[in-house]
Amino acid sequence: KHNNIVFSDPYVRSLSINDHGIVTCSSVSGNTPIVVPNWQSEHHSIRFFYAQSTPFKNKLLYPQEGTLILKLSYLPHYSVNIALYPELFNQLLRAKSQFGLTMTVENAVLDGDKTLLTTPRSIASLFTLSYELSPTCIITYIIHSASSMWVIWTIILFVIRRPLSQVFDTVSLDYWRIRRGLKKQQFEPYLQPVFDIDGKLTGAEVLARWVHPKRGIISPYEFIDIAEKNGQINQISAQLMQKCALHLHNSVISSAQSFNLGFNVSAIQFDNDTFFEDMAQLKEDLSDTGIQLTIELTERQAFSSQEKYMFAAQQLKACGVKVSLDDFGTGYCSLSYLLSSDIDIIKIDRSYIRTIDEGPNTHVLDSIIELAKRTNSLLLAEGVETTAQFDYLKQVDVERYQGFLFEKPMPIDQFKSKYLNGHSNN
């Protein structure tokens, strides 16, 4: 049984039983009695100490080596002695040498290199461990222990470098700037009025402006495309809708006057149900004002399918929201949208309006106007900047006008004061 214990544990050198100073049984000497010199009786004690020599000195392969003794005294005259290899403990200490580990027993100190005898003293436990912790120790430990992990992570990063770069390209620093702007409520609705042929106000288009504390007013051309790619465009639209509701909820439009409030929306925004929820909330907030909501479908991005577009248009119509085609004629899907659903308003892009000032080169503009008229949709010319443009458009019976010739976009409170103040409850 003794030998089974010794052979099964690499730390155990030998196991022996001492009775009245005589080793009566041992894994080294068997049942041969061996007298222990200078033996003293001990009662109910457990000791852990270093012994330079043992009664088995002449029977060991390396008699010059000392040993660690774990002595368990059950009776004053009876004890079990377990001899352990000091070198194995030193090996454990050397494995973490950067921390300066030392192990102290009753009469010796093990420092990883050797075993040093000390004056016997009483300690609270069988042994103690001491360490030295410094920035150098920590750095050395990280370098040694994490060297294999550096290799693994290098391989992983090499494999995923391309998809990772695409993610960083998509979610750039602009994402965090826009996120901070949203958190600080920096996106403001600017309204540009829309007039009929007689100069009567018929509505307004809501345009996003980023009012930055350091950069001032940032044009939508600098952030709208980025927000669409980053998936933040719905949050910007929601913030604009909330501020429109806050400023316009107490305005009342007479029944004899129609007022369309238009929001630019791209196809990607319909992928999120929150857009319809935000629109429904705005419609409810403005339900007592007489303001009619209009969604202006832009062509910055196309719908993934005709069915998806039809579903979005039907959802808007079901909510009592008008549908307008923005920048008509600039994208490949305008005609497709026009033919597949009931469009309320067609906005002729400013690029065609400018051809009026360039002489007789208005054939494309005339064709667009003729096509739009056949759909029974209301025609709105955007970007009207000169009297010549206005006069020409009146001649071809365009019904609505928007542009710098009439008014520039302005903050919503300024718009309300100038155009809706006479219809306010306040």
UniProtKB/TrEMBL annotation:
The keyword RNA-binding does not apply. Keywords: c-di-GMP, Cell membrane, Hydrolase, Membrane, Transmembrane, Transmembrane helix. It comes from the Bacteria. It is a multi-pass membrane protein. Gene3D superfamilies: EAL domain (3.20.20.450). The chain crosses the membrane at residues 138-160. The keyword Cell membrane applies. PROSITE patterns: EAL. It is found in: Cell membrane. It catalyses: 3',3'-c-di-GMP + H2O = 5'-phosphoguanylyl(3'->5')guanosine + H(+). GO terms for molecular function: cyclic-guanylate-specific phosphodiesterase activity. InterPro entries: CSS-motif_dom, Cyclic-di-GMP_PDE-like, EAL_dom, EAL_sf. Its EC number is 3.1.4.52. One of its GO terms (cellular component) is plasma membrane. This is cyclic-guanylate-specific phosphodiesterase. It comes from Vibrio viridaestus.
